Amino acid sequence: MITASDLAHQTCSDGYYYHPLFRAVNYTSGVKYLSDNGCSWLVTDILSHLIANPDVVGAIKNDPFLVINFKRDAQGWVIEIATDEGDVLATEHRITNAIDTEVKFYYIDGVMLLASEY
Q1: The predicted structure's pLDDT at residue 74
Q2: Would you call 53 exposed, middle or buried from its count of C-beta atoms within 10 A (0-12, 13-18, 19+)?
Q3: What pTM, to 2 d.p., does this model score?
Q4: Rounded to an integer, what distance in angstroms lies between the CA atom of residue 20 and that of residue 62?
Q5: Which one of 16, 18, 48, 64 counts the least CB within 10 Å of its CB?
Q6: What is the pLDDT of residues 71-101, one digit of tens each?
């Protein structure tokens, strides 16, 4: 299970990576760490929204900076993709025990990164 302390050391990236199904979006070492340690579903869920969700794709054309939160709500866990002004573009609820911490990501000019790597 990934915890906040597991992500605490993810403060910079040594390169970019990509998922074979979502080559249009690169991601950093911190995102790769999540993917390699039981949360590949989280990374692919987010990538699928960045590539195929019409509301998200439209927002990226206007402003290539998005905020992505994986957080708890009344129904469990939710992935929330929003503009930097807070306008929510997409949400997806998930049930998981693979991660026990909220995670904030940024999407900037084709690169997805952990907020701690910004």
Answers
A1: 86
A2: middle
A3: 0.94
A4: 26
A5: 64
A6: 998 888 999 999 999 999 999 999 888 999 9
Give 47-65 pLDDT, tens digit per residue: 999 999 999 999 999 999 9
**Under 8 Å between Cβ of 41 and 87:** no
106: nearest Cα among 94, 97, 116 = 116
Rg (CA), the chain: 13
What does the pLDDT read at residue 25? Answer: 96
CB atoms within 10 A of CB 25: 19
* Alpha helix segments (H runs only) across 1-118: 4-7, 29-34, 40-52, 54-62
Paired tokens of 113: 């990164």
Q: Set out the domains of the chain in order of their start, with CATH numbers.
A: 4-8+28-117 (3.10.450)
Rounded CA-CA distance 109/93 in Å is: 26
